[in-house]
Design brief:
- By secondary structure, the protein is mainly beta.
- It has one domain (2-97): Beta Barrel (Thrombin, subunit H), CATH 2.40.10.
- 7% of the residues lie in helices and 57% in strands.
- It is built from one helix and six strands, in the order βββαβββ.
- It has a six-stranded antiparallel beta barrel with strand order 1-2-3-6-5-4.
- A hairpin with a 4-residue loop joins β4 and β5.
- The longest helix has 7 residues, at 46-52.
Length: 100
């Protein structure tokens, strides 16, 4: 597994046709067996995070135009928290575009 760098920024979290709210993200990217994978932290208002937790088809529409499909890593979420760990499933840039 090769560390590629970190993606940070802001975006809007959505599920299906529903917009959940603005979010910040901080993701570490890796190259594993020829595939780019990433995981990291998603931060947003606790109300929005609670609403999104457990939903399918979660997408983070980033300010730079990416559409990152993600899922929460934890099985439980504290209802007052404003941060959660996520794994990104698709939408990541290729390995050569990551900032080291």
């Amino acid at each position: 597994m090769q560390f590629l760098g970190t993606l940070r920024g802001t975006g809007v979290l959505a599920s299906g046709e529903e917009t959940i709210g603005p979010a910040d993200y901080d993701l570490d990217g890796y190259l594993q067996q020829g595939e780019v994978i990433a995981s990291g932290e998603l931060r947003m208002a606790a109300e929005g995070l609670s609403k999104a937790f457990g939903l399918r088809d979660l997408r983070l529409l980033t300010e730079d135009g990416r559409q990152l499909h993600l899922r929460f890593s934890a099985k439980l979420l504290d209802p007052d928290t404003d941060a959660a760990h996520v794994d990104v499933q698709t939408g990541l840039p290729p390995a050569e575009q990551w900032r080291h």
